[in-house]
Structures are given as structure tokens and as C-alpha cells.
Protein: Anthocyanidin synthase
Amino acid sequence: MVIAANSRVESLAKSGIHEIPKEYIRTQHELTTITNIFEAKEDQQGPQVPTIDLKDINSNDPKIREKCIDELIKAATEWGVMHLVNHGISNDLINRVKAAGENFFDQPVEEKEKHCNDIASGKIQGYGSKLANNACGQLEWEDYFFHLVYPEEKRDLTIWPSTPSDYIPATSEYAIQIRSLTTTVLAALSLGLGLEEGRLEKEVGGKDELIVQLKINYYPKCPQPELALGVEAHTDVSALTFILHNMVPGLQLFYGGQWITAKCVPDSIIMHIGDTIEILSNGKYKSILHRALVNKEKVRISWAVFCEPPKEKIILKPLPETVSEEKPPLFPPRTFQQHMEHKLFRKNNDTVDPK
Structure:
């Protein structure tokens, strides 16, 4: 059976193929590092992604609050990724968000195509199978749904699914609560740089300009998971990224020279520090390289919320307070748009940027 490589990955997965198209097969170097994700999940040896309990992040007791903030700062400095528990977003709302996304992807591909995007014409929001060009030209074993969710006045609800009926209410409320959590985390990270609590939020756009976007990643079962990646290795360009998933393992982080599999921690939200905060902190906070593996047994779904500065209004560069003779700036000044182009399309070859 010949299947076009530009089919939806879900259609490929359900077509009965036993071998994936060559466009999905990773480079030889990558193939040597791809493991069985279920075996990797059971491996208790080696480093583990830290779990940060936010229960005391707003405590009235300064010492208790400081201890919580210090633990978050330590994880952001050493790892750049963490499981957040007691984050303040109810399990009921999270379950509604997951159910809405799962129900959308449970629909026939023909229904989902009514929401398709068109990258070539600049319509990046909607249902698709490849978010952006990558450096090596290979395809990733995922479909997705991508759209802006906050601020409310910048949303285009014509793109949002009307089926299931709870998609818009649940996703809207979740975006509001994630936006509030972003303020809390950025305040703690500001303190870790010796800055006023509101400084980092101001530097990434403040209350009005910070953009929040949702990408629901749908990773179908893969007949040859040892040859494919759901998402190739990358760092996020965002300020912060928050991730939910359906408790199927798949996320791996490159830490200490090896790929570490993130455990599935109940009732947690995974948080990544993005490039934007790494740049502003002059490298103190780490934007960690990560990727998604696939498997042949279970569909994996994740909900990634990207909190991003406006594309052109802010020049991203290390804050003056993070620069000294001993710590010169590690990153050249760029707008967020220029940084995205540099990362995604390799439009220039600055020597300063270690990425």
C-alpha cells in the first residue's frame, strides 16, 4: 500500500502500514538514542525531573514562601523544567480541558479538516501536521491543533472547535488560570535574579501584551516507534511553557549529556523555561533541549501552552542586572520574531548565540 507522506499522521497510523514513510525516519545519529519509552519510564536510575510543590508560593509566612521560591529557582537554574504540583488549577478544570481535546481528536479526520490551517499562506492557527520548517526537513509523527487563547480580545473563536460543546468554555477558563500562574512563576523567577517581582513579566509584555497559545499534540500509535520522533529535539522559544498530558509517557529532556524520560506525575503540570527567559536571565535559567517519543501501544496527547512576548515590540537581550565583566552577555539583541526566525529557519549565523 502506498500512502502519501503528506497525509495526516492519524490517517497513516490507521491505514494498516507496517513501515513508516521514509520522510518520518530520523537521522542515524538520532536513531542511536531512541529507546522504548515504556522501558525508559521504568528506569529509576539516574537524574529525575524535579517536582516543585507550589502550595506555599503565596504564604504569608516569609520564610515558608522563600523556601518554596528557592526550590523553584533551583529547578529553573539546574534543569529548566519541572513538574508543578499544588499549582492552584483544579483537577475538574484540567479534566474538562483534556476531555474536550480528546473528544476533538476522536472525531473523523474529515471533521477535523474543517479546522485545518494553511502554513504557506500564513494561517498558522488550526488543525495541522507540521507546525514549522525544521533544520533537517524530516516529518514528525504527530498531528496538532494550535491557536491563540489569551488575551481574550486577540482570540479568533471562528478557529476554535464548536464540537465538543465544552471546548471553548473549558479552554478559555484554563487559559485565564494559566495566565495567572504565569504571573506567579515570573514573580518568583524575578526574585531569583535580584529583581522586583513584576520585572520579568514587564519585560515579556506585561498584562496586556504577553500572548498565550495552545498546541494540542496528538501522537498516534506508530508501527516503528524506534525510527520516528513525535517532536524532534528543540528548546521552546517561549517565556514559559506549561504542559498537560494523558499520562502516556513520551517527553524526554537532554540533561547531563543524556536523554532523561519524564515520569508521569499525577495532578501535575510540566513547566519549561523558554528561550525568552533564558536570554533575559543571561543564561541563569535554562531552556532545556527536549523531544517527544512515540510508541506502538498507546495514543499520546499533550496540551502545551506557550506564553510568549509580542513579536516585534520588545528587544530580547540579557537584562543589565544580569551582565557584568565576569558575566558578559551570552545572547545578541533580537526581537522575538527575529529569535524565532533564527531558531526555526536558521536565517543567520550569529556566533554569540550558543544555541
